[in-house]
Amino acid sequence: MTLQEEITIIDKLRHGSKEAFRILFEHYWPVFFSFAKRLLRDDSAAEDVLQNVFLRLWCRKERIDGTRSLKNYLLVAVRNEIFCRYRDIFNKRREGIRDIHADTGPSAETMIEAKELHGKIEQAIGNMPARRRQVFDMSRKTGLSNAEIAARLGLSVRTVEKHIEVALDDIRKGLNLSAIALIAILF
Prior knowledge:
Layout: H1 3-14, H2 18-40, H3 43-59, H4 70-100, H5 108-126, H6 130-140, H7 146-153, H8 157-175, H9 179-186
């Protein structure tokens, strides 16, 4: 599909064309199904992720920016859906562990491991350049949105996003964790 064809189809989709949605669905489904399946290692979970992404695409069709790449939009949407799935799994497991320890509390070993992990995270944050650390702290500790951080520091939103992305990568490398484990810990 050429860029011009995609722009035309997106314009029709924005105006409610089910046929345009079907064309985009059939064109992009195989690519993103392979991507999701490779990350999730589960056909059913990959299908669920893609169904959610395409459902949101249909529900938000009027807001699609016809000047931007739909493929990139879908890639980010699929990736985010996968991360949310992993975060939900992690949180359910963490809640299960909390339930087990509800009467007895965490073991001394667990407390030591948690303190060590926290110390390593703080050390990785402390080793960051000042601006990256500032942006990361405003995002994760203060809870500001990327737009709010950008406005307060006089940066573009994309620059803020990049600082956070690099900061998470620094922490992940410092802890020798996978990206998914890091997301589950920090969110």
